[in-house]
Amino acid sequence: MFKNKGFTIIELLIVIAVIAILVGIALPRFRGMQEEGKIAQAKGELRTLQTGLESYYIHNNNTYPAALSSLTSATPNIIGAALPTDPFNGSNNYGYATDGASPVKYYVIYSVGSGGNGSAAVSTAGVVTETNGSSCIYVTNGSSKDTQP
Fold first, then answer.
1. Structurally, what CATH architecture does the domain formed by 9-140 represent?
2. Of 34, 52, 144, 148, which has the fewest beta carbons less than 10 angstroms from its beta carbon?
3. Cβ(121)–Cβ(96) under 8 Å?
4. HEC-encoded secondary structure of 63-97
5. Where are the domains of the chain?
6. Alpha-carbon torsion angle 30, 89, 38, 20, nearest 10
7. According to DSSP H, which parts of 8-66 are helical?
8. β-pair partners for 128
């Protein structure tokens, strides 16, 4: 004659277990999507920075800047007041390296990548080499053995 108006402890435990299993399946997939989003963001921003460098080159007597920060005050202004930050490196800007020649002929702009410690260098022949790991994402006007954005 008593009517049950609630759930038993076993029913609640089963529901909690099912929810925990679903969260366990969904969480790694969500983290993977975040990583893919950061990679896409880095590739897009690197292409924008490369466009800014090429514009700087055209409008400044065929010379590349010594630092990426020169793009924020260049005319015409493509980048804006502030450089984008590397999504894998928090508040730090993307890396920039030149071949060291005078005048600079080759450059590479890079993100540290998902490993958080990647970097790149470019030789006077325009060949890009990755250092400190292989998770680096980069764009260059040189050449590379890897396919990049």
1. 2-Layer Sandwich (3.30)
2. 34
3. no
4. CCCCCHHHHHHCCCCCCCCCCCECCCCCCCECEEE
5. 9-140
6. 0
7. 9-59
8. 122
